[in-house]
Design goal:
With 402 residues, this protein is α/β, with parallel strands linked by helices. The protein has three domains: 17-212, 3-Layer(aba) Sandwich (Rossmann fold), CATH 3.40.50; 226-298, Ubiquitin-like (UB roll), CATH 3.10.20; 303-400, de novo design (two linked rop proteins), CATH 1.20.1440. 42% of the residues lie in helices and 15% in strands. The chain has helices spanning 17-22, 27-37, 49-58, 79-86, 88-102, 119-131, 162-169, 198-210, 212-216, 249-255, 303-317, 323-340, 346-362, 366-370, 373-381, 383-389, and strands at residues 65-70, 106-111, 147-152, 193-197, 226-233, 239-244, 261-266, 272-275, 293-298, 391-394, 397-400.
């Protein structure tokens, strides 16, 4: 069983140390080290980072781009904000190592619109790294150069999806692209592009400095290293925690002082709602989804009200491009309202469940595919509570409308 807390991302860091080691290697050697570490993307999807870099390195193109996804829009998530505020040089050094490895000369950090106030600090960090010859022209006298641009989003949740983010970068409406081709082949300006999350880039300097074997000592076989979690809700000690992959929900609840817990939403609004029977399961890619958010609900919470809040968010944030997401989120919210009023039949509930399952495979992008997760998990895990509140009286006998 994995431990509870680690200190990887918040341990000592000297800007430039990892980059100096990286430039002594070839691009394929760096990529192989990242592959051996089994680092997976910390934005939620969990795609192997080394594989993504290798695809861009192998792709044909006169220009290649490194893009940092800092569009932290998932409800309940605020861990990237800590890294952007207090550890920007780790992000930029990770981006520089990635650029050196794949042969890119340009990097972009796509920043959430609500994080506009962080721009001066990021600009200062870039300036200081340029002065130290860790960014800009002729980095460390090697002839390798990397320009870094900060691009502000416009407050669209869908731009957390990598192809919608790229559309926004190009000045277009933020909508997901058809895939294939994937960004690793045709990304920003139709050039091969690496798109990684803020947290993912932060691990790279530590892996280059300490080695892949060291990183694999943390976590599980399939989910190596640690992960940052934004923990909020009915807890005594909310905040950002760095936890070893494989930490169980029960361990997290004990650590943050949660009492009388009814449910835990893991992975943000697009994640799943976990009931007490699953609190002993680990947070890992092969188990409970280790997204950036953990929201705790105690026994005073109405789970239909929680669900209604999540579905209202998805109705509001659907980009409207594909019918399954645009209409599906609306119909699921409509069904929740019917349940709250005690007017949802068992047959219609079955239809809503089928709709949710259809959305998981028919929506165009990953965000739409995950939109029904909260609905399906809450309906499945808290059916007894929902049935109890929707009890109605017919001919003097109590029955259920659902």
């Amino acid at each position: 069983m994995a431990g509870i807390k680690t200190q990887i991302l918040f341990s000592s860091f000297e800007p430039g140390n990892a980059l100096k080691l990286a430039i002594l290697k070839t691009g394929p050697e760096i990529i192989e080290e990242i592959k051996n570490s089994k680092l997976r993307g910390r934005g939620g999807a969990g795609f192997p980072t080394g594989v993504k870099w290798d695809l861009v390195h192998s792709a044909q193109g006169d220009e290649k781009y490194i893009i940092c996804n800092a569009d932290e829009g998932e409800p309940g998530t605020f861990k990237d904000r800590i890294l952007l505020t207090d550890h920007p040089k780790k992000i930029f050094e990770g981006m520089a190592i990635a650029a050196f490895a794949v042969g890119a000369k340009h990097a972009i950090i796509y920043l959430r619109a609500e994080y506009r106030y962080l721009v001066p600090g990021l600009v200062q960090a870039i300036s200081e790294m340029e002065s130290a010859r860790l960014l800009g022209n002729n980095i460390l006298g090697t002839g390798f150069s990397l320009s870094v641009e900060i691009h502000l989003g416009a407050g669209a949740y869908v731009c957390g999806e990598e192809t919608a983010l790229i559309e926004s970068l190009e000045g277009k409406r933020g909508e997901a692209r058809n895939k294939p081709p994937y960004p690793t082949k045709k990304g920003y300006m139709d050039c091969p592009s690496v798109v990684n999350n803020v947290e993912t880039f932060c691990y790279v300097p530590y892996i280059l400095t300490n080695g892949a074997d060291w990183f694999r000592e943390y976590g599980t076989l399939e989910s190596t290293g640690s992960k940052l979690f934004s923990i909020s809700g009915d807890v005594a000690k909310p905040g950002v925690y760095e936890l070893e992959m494989g930490t169980t929900v029960n361990q997290v609840l004990k650590m943050v002082g949660a009492q009388n817990t009814k449910a835990v939403q893991v992975g943000g609004a697009s994640g799943i709602c976990v009931a007490n029977k699953d609190f002993d399961k680990p947070l890992a890619f092969e188990a409970l989804p280790p997204g950036g958010s953990i929201i705790v609900f105690n026994k005073s919470r109405d789970m239909l009200e929680v669900l209604s809040n999540f579905m209202e968010f998805f109705v509001e944030e659907s980009c409207g491009q594909c019918t399954p997401c645009r209409e599906g989120t609306f119909r699921l919210l409509e069904g929740v309202k019917l349940m709250q009023e005690g007017r949802c039949s068992i047959n219609y509930l079955k239809t809503l469940r089928e709709l949710g399952e259809t959305m998981r495979v028919a929506c165009k992008c990953g965000l739409g595919q995950m939109a029904p997760n909260a609905f399906l998990s809450i309906i499945d895990n808290f059916k007894g509570e929902i049935l109890a509140r929707d009890r109605v009286e017919i001919n003097g006998k109590q029955t259920h409308s659902i």
